[in-house]
Structures are given as C-alpha cells and as structure tokens.
Amino acid sequence: MRYISTRGSAPVLDFEAATLAGLASDGGLYLPDAWPTMTRDEIAALAGLSYVDTAVAVMAPFVGDAMTREELKALCDQAYGRFSHAAVVPLVQLDHDQWLLELFHGPTLAFKDVALQLLGLFFERFLAGTDKRLTIVGATSGDTGSAAIDAVAGREGIDIFMLHPVGRISDVQRRQMTTVLSPNVYNIAIEGSFDDAQALVKAMFNDRAFSTKFALSAVNSINWARLMAQVVYFFYAAVRLGAPDREVAFAVPTGNFGDVFAGYVAARMGLPVAKLVVATNVNDILHRALSTGDYSKGGVQQTPTPSMDIQVSSNFERLLFDLGDRDGAALATQMAGFESSGAMRLTNAQSEGAAALFQSDRVDLDDMTLAMRWAHEHAGQVIDPHTAIGLAAALRLDVPAGVPIVTLATAHPAKFGDAVERATGVRPSLPTRVGDLFDREERYATLPATFDAITAYITERARPSA
C-alpha cells in the first residue's frame, strides 16, 4: 500500500512512513493511492466476528507489508483490551429506526480512544530498536488531546506537546490532559481558538528547519493511521444491522471532518452506506459547503459542544481531493486560495460527488437540547451534547423504510455534565476509573497563540531526533 499527498508533490510513502510523518511535506494530507475494496462475501463474513477480528480484516489492506496480520491482531488486542465494554463499541437501540453506536468506552471516555490507543502502539512498534525520537505536536478541541496523551504517556522515544484553547473546553476534558504528569507530556493552553491551535500545528510541520530538527508527527486526524482505525466501526455496526444485505445510514456529529470521512472510506471500500449525515452545530462551515458549495470561514462561536467549535475542517481536504479526480496540483491551488482568503467555492465535480453520499444539517442549541431530552424520555438514554447534535440530524433524516440510522455517540455524557443536567435534569457521574479526576494535580503552560512563543517552548523541552 502506497500513500500519496492531497497536494501532489510530497514523497510517496508506505504505511509506516506515513504514520510517522503525519502531515505531508507539501502541506497536504496522506491517503492511499487507491481504495482497497471488500466484496459482498467478505463483508458478510464479518458477521459474528469480534471487534478485534473485524479491525484486522478491515485494516490489513491499508497496513500492507508494514506488519503481518498476526502482529496487527496483537496490537489490536492490546489497544482494545483497555476498553470497559466487551463489545468495544456497542450498539444501543433507541426506537424502530434509530440506533446509537457508543464509542466512549475507552480510557478517556471519547471516540478518539478507538484510534489513538492503536496509534500509540503503532508509534512504539515503528520506533522500537531504533535511535529515533518522535515529537508529537497536536491541537485539540477537547477529546483528541486526552486520548493521545493517554496513548503515549510514558512511552519510550516519544514526547508529546498538546495545544488546547484556554477556557474553551470542558473541565473534564482539560483535566484528563493536564493531570497526566508523565515527563514526556506537555500541555499548552493557548490564548486563542482551536482553529488558531490547528493553524500553529500546521505551521510547525511546514517549517522545515523546525520539523526536521524534532522529527514531528501528528495525532490529529491529519494522521492517516488514525482515520484508518475509525473506518472499522462503520463496518462493525453496519454488519450487525444487516449489511451487506441492507443499507445503513450514519449521522456523525462533525467538526474536523475526520470521523465522517472514515465513513466515506468505508463506503468506498464497498460497505452499503445509504447516507452519511454531516451534523454541525452553529459553526456550520461544513453544512454551508455541502449544501451550497460555499466553504468560507466565519467567526467561531462558543457552544456547549466545544469539540465542534471549528471553522477550518482539515480533513475536508481529503474529500475534495478524492472527488476532484485526485488532481493534487489543482487541489493545492484551490487550498492556497482558501488559506489566503478564508473562502473557497467547491467545483461542480466536488459538489455533485459529495451530494451522492453526504447530507448535512445545522443543529442549533434548542434542537440539541430537544434531542437530549428525547433520548432520555423516550429511550432511557443520557447522551452528551455532541451526540445530541448527531441525533437531532438523524431524527430529521428522510431515508427509505427499513434503513436503520446509526448516530455515533462520541463522548460519555459525564464529560459535559453541566450541559446534560440543564437539558435533562440528570447529572451523569464519571465512571469509577476516573472518579478522582478533580482531586488530581494539574500541570500546564499558558502561552500566546504565536508561532514564536510555541516553538520556543517546545525547543526548550523536546529532545531532538537522532
């Protein structure tokens, strides 16, 4: 399996090199040079398999010869053995048509664990027996940071620097990062938005002197290996609901477009996906792009769904590349225009290609609250605000009779206890394994959102690559 950049001029890499690199050297994102496919019989054969065995079957074509299936299975056993539910990602029925896929049973109570527990093990395996060091830099709107830190804390050969927007994530999200006191973990609260943090991370990757000195790598969904791991649960859920003999629709609460792009990959591999619903909050750049072709930044509004308070969805570039006949030079020009002006029009091919599979919906605060109440009153389920954005869109989705609709439940409700309690009157409790979170010591730095300030901080603390 070979990996190419969306912008067309970076070196072609294998799975190991693409995983360690994260962002491509031309500023683009890596993805496979061709989509592997699964036949109806191969998809049907997933019925009854464990999550680990499903993961091996789905991911093996992407991994290629970077490791054997047995080695991949051993890493999956280790990663998913830390989840608190035997099914890893259990399905919960809400009514005749509506389902939840619970993705929050990992150690940090969010869907990011599904990919990042595995990514941390990939990093460790690829560095083993070498004198290489990896410096991970990431930006988080809430859950990526804690999941990435948990996955790599204490691992040999790795330092991690995680940026989060000060005051714009929940207390639980912040503490899950800042109470990890391993010597290779550094948390940085920046005085800005998530988009500012994400832009700083991209700037560090694109600064050749800095990125080569420290062998930078990424844990955000710009890293292909993370998206690959997320493809698995679309197959796992769909097969349990009748695939390949019936289509399944998915509603995905979306900020950075990574999770829903994983669903697109599953469809490209042959999974019968009726519709992928891109559910945004009022920070609706993706809804505007998919419904009108207008991909233009606006101001970021703070909401009870901080992981979705984003106006630049980095993974959208992968979709535009795939729908634009994989013309890296054309996309590089298109993205350069967006990066300089903050505005871009999708081409006809991009808009029409997206419309064949995607539907978008903008969910405001009132509809989010109503969805939380509906889940609690009609199905006995307490859900977090992000999941409620997806569910609100799912409840409005018009699909043919008999097509189940799966909302991705992306975080444990206790991570957003105040918002859940306001909507439902119920105060969700943290699981006992993290019940002492508010008694733990915190450690983090607060810095201005400038390239010089952040790189100076990292330079003083990171250990250069060998």
Automatic annotation (TrEMBL):
An example Gene Ontology molecular-function term: pyridoxal phosphate binding
Record PTM N6-(pyridoxal phosphate)lysine, positions in chain: K112
Pathway: Amino-acid biosynthesis; L-threonine biosynthesis; L-threonine from L-aspartate: step 5/5
Pfam families: PALP (PF00291), THR4_C (PF24857), Thr_synth_N (PF14821)
Record keywords, A-Z: Amino-acid biosynthesis, Lyase, Pyridoxal phosphate, Threonine biosynthesis
E.C. no: 4.2.3.1
GO biological process: threonine biosynthetic process
Reactions the enzyme catalyzes: O-phospho-L-homoserine + H2O = L-threonine + phosphate
Domain Threonine synthase N-terminal: 2-80
Signal peptide, first to last residue: none
Cofactors (names): pyridoxal 5'-phosphate
Enzyme's top EC category: lyase
SUPFAM superfamilies assigned: Tryptophan synthase beta subunit-like PLP-dependent enzymes
All copies of domain Tryptophan synthase beta chain-like PALP, residue ranges: 98-328
Family matches, as PANTHER family: THREONINE SYNTHASE FAMILY MEMBER, THREONINE SYNTHASE-LIKE 2
Family listed: Belongs to the threonine synthase family.
Name under which the protein is recorded: Threonine synthase
UniProt organism field: Sphingomonas aurantiaca
Source organism phylogeny: Bacteria, Pseudomonadati, Pseudomonadota, Alphaproteobacteria, Sphingomonadales
